[in-house]
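quick one before i forget lol
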Amino acid sequence: MRRYTSQTTLLRGGTLVTPEGILVADLLIQGEHIRAIGQDLPVAPDTVVIDADGLLVLPGVIDAHVHIALDTGIYRTPDDWLIGTRAAACGGVTTVVDFATQFPGQTLREAVEARLVEAQDAAVDYTFHVMVTDLPPGREEELAVLRELGTPSVKLYTTYRPNYYADDATILRLMETSARLGILPLVHCENDALVTAQTQALVAAGKTGWRYHARARPALAEVEAIRRVLFLAEVARCPVHIVHCSTARSVEEVVRARQAGQPVTCETCPQYLVLDDSVYEGPEPWRYILQPPLRAPGEPEALWDLVAKGLVDQIATDHCDYTRAQKTAADDFTRTPGGLPGLETLLPLMYTYGVAAGRLTLPQLVSLLSANPARIWGLWPRKGALLPGSDADIVVYDPEPEGVLRAENLHHLAGYTPYEGMPIRGQVRLVFVRGHLVYREGQFVGRKGWGKFIPRPVG
């Protein structure tokens, strides 16, 4: 098979998809950038020409919520940045936004610099949100260093004592400073008191098996926390992003705030669109331990309706590569690490159950997976765009093949997928990251360390 490694590549006659529409055209890659788009573009003698007739040419997917080589202080995923970004590349994800965690005793600068060292083997491009866990009163101005480092977004949590939890006073204080500095908070919203009380009640009743997981973290806890965080953001005059909305009412709270004039965005994840909590009564509930948990039957379709109406801004995975052994060590939801592998399956799932199912148009798909994340997180138009001058982050997707998702065909370490056996429509054929081919016809052909840190400007 011919190797497409030339610095100049022409994708001939593909169906180019942008948020604005669909165009059958040629796309010329020169070096790390898109050079030109048009009909019958001239071809230099050393150009590699790829026939893209009948294939979709998409901007590279930006997964703006992932956890590669995650260390929570309690659990740790055994993957590394090459493994995580290899899975990303094989699924058409060309940029990931991961997290730099401020561990006890670290400054924010030290947290980011340590994560940069960990990420240096990445095969796709990356940037960071910063988990702020230790910034007591009087030190808020230290957030300013994130502007200098190119990481102007901070992750806050209303749950997870003792390692991540921030009380309302802390959230308000950090939001007020973030607003002044142009830093965007993103918030994991679950009412910690409600989750704690419900968990304690289940433990007292001896109901700690995996099948009880969703009962410990009810939708009420998520919706209440979102409403409270939106109010705090309004008071602080701070834009805010709400992560992994698992229920339609969560999105509706965001929509209500947005209609009232608040600058707020939100995301949901594939798991909340294609799975529901009936799986906890099935034979392998361990596959679905995550926070927030899966919700009641009917919620996925209600979420799809909001996504289709353009009321959800992005779809991300919240990818965590815990292994089957870690997940199955004890049939006890209080001792099972929460999080699912999903980087490689994001695009195929959203194409299958969004576009092919008639719920989304192709331009909507590109908006949700590429353009909107790029705009929200300060990467546009370098990333998420099919435009001359943009990075040549490109996915060539064949919409015709039909298959079934199997863990044995995926590239993460987990040894399982929560989507095992689900039908899939279409297939990733080629993936370019800044003009460099990283995936070709079923094979990862990328290079360790090709991925580059992408600093972001202040919003």
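fyi Residues 8-58+391-444 form a domain with the Urease, subunit C; domain 1 fold (CATH 2.30.40.10).
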